[in-house]
Amino acid sequence: MSSPSSLLTYQRGIGLETSILFAHEGASVLLADISGPALERALKKLNELVPDPAGKIETTICDVSKESDVKAMVEKLDAWGGCDVIFNNAGIMHADDADAIDTPEKIWDLTQNINVKGVWFGSKHAMLSMRKHKKTKGSIINTASVVALVGSSAPQLAYTASKGAVLAMTRELAI
Questions:
Q1: Known catalytic membership, residue 159
Q2: pLDDT tens, position by position, for the chain (175 residues)?
Q3: What's the pTM value of the predicted model, to 2 decimals?
Q4: Which of 91, 109, 117, 140 is the most buried (most CB within 10 A)?
């Protein structure tokens, strides 16, 4: 990275590793998760691996299925000069996700609300922040899955459909 930027990301697995990489490269990072204990563990690991970060490192609780939470999360970056990068990586693959017959509607809705609406809300509010702060460069990174392209041999219809939606939404946003 040529200059530190602000990264907003979610804190497990890929999201955490991305946060560590950005912090190591000098970016200010806002770690977000629905779970306070997950954020505490993520912050501890980040601080162990990047003990003297060049940028700010902060955390916030966020339920990505709620637009008000996502809006508030992105607005925390106003004090940093706005959002430069958002990594929309929050997602679930629920144990009760099955095929077209056996997936309960509540599991379908939960999966779409987190995996699709969460990406939409994150993208929307990151773009609004970038415009507000007159950014000439920025990145919106959305996590999909190979199942968006080829389907899955295991029954996980809600997850597969959600990742197909994320892929299509990402293409539309890029255009």
A1: yes
A2: 344 455 555 556 899 999 999 999 999 999 999 999 999 999 999 999 999 999 999 999 999 999 999 999 999 999 999 999 999 998 989 999 999 999 999 999 999 999 999 999 999 999 999 999 999 999 999 999 988 888 888 889 999 999 999 999 999 999 8
A3: 0.89
A4: 91
